[in-house]
Amino acid sequence: MTTLYDCSSAPSPRRARILLAEKGVAHETVQVDLRSGEQLGDAYRAINPQCTVPALRTDEGAVLTDNAAIAAYLEARYPQPPLLGSTPLEKAEVASWNWRVEFEGLMAIAEALRNSAPAMANRALPGPVDYPQIPALAERGVARVRQFLAVLDTRLAGRSFIVGDRLSIADITAAVAVDFARVVRVKPDDSQQHLQHWRAALAQRPAFQL
Ligand SMILES: N[C@@H](CCC(=O)N[C@@H](CS)C(=O)NCC(=O)O)C(=O)O
């Protein structure tokens, strides 16, 4: 049975959770308690030495230890519906936007949160190695998150999806980032109507309730 190593409160595994739901892939879920540091314990380290979630154990027994691998595998194994683009150009655009959303959105939020939250002292980066917080990065992170929302709002003018005319992984990553931005007290403002309409439309899909 396919198994997702998940953490219900964390954004990265939520991306994999939504992808699995949009593909309609049956799976089991194992919760990893990031708050108590379970990801750093011997049992989970033996599953994923990078000590991060998500990880996906395939029904053949392979363990995929990041969203990029999980998305590549699921798209190849379950091609319908296509979530990484259909035409060569669309695939390129989805890859480009997904990376931008990861770098400008998710990583900016992580930078803001992990460099300021007292609970993450010395845990400024995920993974097995401890790194101290740098408060200036938290400040820069918040500015980057605001800029990310502005970029996304502009992109979504006159569009229902970030790329093409159907849902892609770029929309999934972006919705997860927009929702998670609340942890650093940033949310779309009233002027960002394109972004707000897009997010409200995605909320109609059951996968986005996860
Ligand atoms: N490249 C990974 C990043 C995963 C990641 O950073 N996950 C976070 C949760 S959102 C984590 O496992 N953090 C563990 C920690 O903070 O120690 C992916 O997207 O799959």
Description:
The chain is α+β, with helices and mostly antiparallel strands. Helices cover 48% and strands 6% of the residues. The chain is built from 7 helices and 4 strands. Strands 2-1-3-4 form a 4-stranded mixed sheet. Helix 1 packs parallel to helix 3 (67-77), helix 4 (88-114) packs antiparallel against helix 5 (135-155) and helix 4 (88-114) packs parallel to helix 6 (169-180). The longest helix is centred in the middle third of the chain and has 27 residues, at 88-114. 35% of the residues are buried. Glutathione binds at residues 10-12, 34, 39, 51-54, 66-67, 123, 126. Residues 10-12, 34, 39, 51-54, 66-67, 123, 126 line the site of glutathione (GSH).
Radius of gyration based on Cα positions: 17 Å
How much of the polypeptide forms β-strand, as a percent range?
5-15%
User: Can you count the beta strands?
Assistant: 4
* Terminal Cα span: 20 Å
| Overall morphology | globular
Largest sheet, spatial ordering of strands: 2-1-3-4
Report the structural category. Answer: alpha+beta
Give the topology, please.
Elements: E1 3-6, H1 11-23, E2 28-31, H2 42-47, E3 55-57, E4 63-64, H3 67-77, H4 88-114, H5 135-155, H6 169-180, H7 193-202
Parallel strand pairs: 1-2
Antiparallel strand pairs: 1-3, 3-4
Helix pairs in contact: 1-3, 1-6, 4-5, 4-6, 5-7
The structure holds glutathione.
Glutathione (GSH) is lined by residues 10-12, 34, 39, 51-54, 66-67, 123, 126.
